[in-house]
Amino acid sequence: MKTLILNGSPRKNGDVAFLLEQLVSLLPGETVRLDAFTSGIRACVDCRFCKTKPGCALQDPMQQLYRTLDSYDNIVIASPVYFSDLTPPLLAIGSRLQASYMAKRFRGEQMFSRPKNGAVILTGGGDGNLDPAWDAAVKFLRLMNARSIAPLAAAHHTDHLPVSEDRQAQDGVRTIARWFIDHAGSSHSSY
User: Which of helix, strand or coil describes residue 24?
Assistant: First the structure.
């Protein structure tokens, strides 16, 4: 089992990092982590290159992600919630999945052919709504051909309850790990 983690947190020892450490410790196989804040991946510039041609005109580390995405069984999107959404660098990575949308919509092609399992981990301390972040993450997972998505794991009260004491968030991470293990191989069937 091979898992890709798209990490939207800028903090190396923050709440998202704590939950990701727990998740990685529970997963068998290889885990690869892409940190959005240091990835060098730029946001989509709406140049429309991908409307008529495969891939993306922007030459940056996203090209490597495009090439390797089908080698993963599982994809995790993990992010603190900023104003009810994913962090801007993670949204930038997601915006580059426009190439996948355009391939399907305008050229009748599937950019990522291998079905995958997906999961979302969110943390936040404010009084905002997690739904916009969840919705964006699920859209991005679908564009990467995640056909099955685990239940959300979230720590939504980090201003009052440290994630290290948030049993519900930690149980959510354990649920994701079990879900990936239980669904290993099943991502290859249609939904």
Answer: helix
Angle between the N-to-C axes of helices 131-143 and 88-95, in degrees from 0 to 180, rounded to the nearest 10: 30
**Residue 118 pairs with which residues in a beta bridge?**
75, 149
CATH number of domain containing 68: 3.40.50.360
Tokens found for residue 72:
């993963």
Tell me, yes or no, whether 106 lies in a domain: yes
- 160 part of a folded domain: yes
Give me the domain span that covers residue 98: 2-185
- Give me the number of domains the chain comprises: 1
Other CB atoms within 10 A of residue 178 CB: 12
Q: Which residue in 39, 55, 33, 57 sits closest to 47, CA to CA?
A: 57
Average pLDDT for consecutive 10-residue bins of the chain (191 residues)?
97 96 97 97 97 96 97 98 96 98 95 97 89 97 97 94 95 98 67 29
Q: Count, in order, helices (H) and strands (E) of the chain.
A: 7, 6
How many whole angstroms separate alpha carbon 15 and alpha carbon 28?
Answer: 22
pLDDT given at position 188: 44
**Domain presence at residue 157:** yes
**Three-class SS string for 67-85?**
HHHHHCCEEEEEEECECCE
Cα 22 to Cα 10: distance, rounded to the nearest angstrom: 18
Looking at residue 49, the DSSP 8-state letter turns out to be: H
d(CA 139, CA 151): 15
